[in-house]
Amino acid sequence: MSETKSSVMPTMPPGKTLLKLRMLANEAVIGEYTDRPVCKAICLSGTTRCVQLTTHRVSYLETRRKWCCVKAPQLLRQVFIKDICEVSVDNHRRHGDSYLGMFFKFIFLVVSPIAGIALIVYNQCFEDSSYDGYYVDYYYDRSKSPLFTIIGGALLAVWLIAVIIVLCRRPGSQIIIGTRCPQLPAFVIALRSKKDCLNLLEELSDLLDKHQ
After folding, report:
1. Which of 3, 5, 152, 171 is deepest in the core (most CB within 10 A)?
2. pTM value surpassing 0.90
3. pLDDT digit string, tens, across residues 114-168
4. Same domain assignment for residues 159 and 125
5. For residue 76, what are the β-bridge partners?
6. At 70, which CATH number?
7. Are residues 75 and 177 in the same domain?
8. What distance in Å separates the CA atoms of residue 8 and residue 2, rounded to the nearest whole number?
C-alpha cells in the first residue's frame, strides 16, 4: 500500500501519473493510492486498485488477476468533482478474496462441518454390546472406533475456529461517492488501508467544499 502526494513526485516524468491520464488545463494531482494484493509472489494473484485524485476529477481503476493472467475486464470509473453530490464511508468484510482464499474458506466453513458430523454419525451406527459374557457386534459386525469420533470432533473444532475468525475479522473501509450523472449514480472505492481511506476522504471533502 502506498500513498503519493503531488508535492513528492520528483521521480515521475512530466505528464506521467499513476493511471497515465492526460492532465487537463490547470489540473494537478492531489493524491494517488495503490492497493496491491496480499500475495507477495510474482503472480500477484488478487485485485489491484489504483486511485488518482486531482483538482478536477477522481479516477478509480480495478484489475483482478489470477495466476499472472487478467481474468476479468478492467473496471475504470471517473467522475468530475463538480458532478459529485455526496461522499460517505461504510464498512464491508472483504476486499477482493482471491480464488485460493475462497477455496480454503469453502473447505473450512462448509466441508469440515459436514465431514465432521458425517464421521460422528457413521461411527454411532455401530454399537458394541455383550450378552451372557459373549461379545456381540451389531450392524455389519463392526465395532465403534474412537478414531472416527476424534477426527469428527477435530473437524468441528476447526469449523468453529474458522467461524470465530470470520465473525471477529476487522471490517475494511470503503468510500461511496454519489454523483449527479444518471449513467453512474454512485460507485464505491475500496482501499485496504484505513489511513489511505481517511486521507482520500479528507481530500475529497476539501475539494467538495471548495466547489460549493
Report:
1. 152
2. no
3. 999 998 888 888 655 444 444 444 444 455 678 888 898 999 999 999 888 877 7
4. yes
5. 61
6. 2.30.29.30
7. yes
8. 13
Structural domain boundaries enclosing 187: 2-93+171-211
Mean pLDDT value across the chain: 74
| Residue (of 54, 93, 103, 82) closest to 190 by Cα position | 93
- Nearest Cα neighbor of 145 from 163, 166, 124 is 124
Within this chain, do residues 176 and 75 fall inside the same structural domain, yes or no? Answer: yes
| Same-domain pairing of 148 and 130 | yes
Nearest to 49 by CA among 74, 29, 78: 74
Q: How many domains, the chain? A: 2
Dihedral angle, C-alpha 200, 186, 92, 72, nearest 10 °: -100
User: How far is 22 from 172, CA to CA, in rounded Å?
Assistant: 31
Does one domain contain both 163 and 175? no
pLDDT, residue 60, reads 87
| Residues 39 and 105 grouped into a single domain | no
Cα gap 29→129, rounded to integer Å: 80
Q: Tell me: the pLDDT tens digits for 18-43?
A: 667 777 788 888 888 888 776 655 55
82-92, pLDDT tens digit by residue?
888 888 887 76
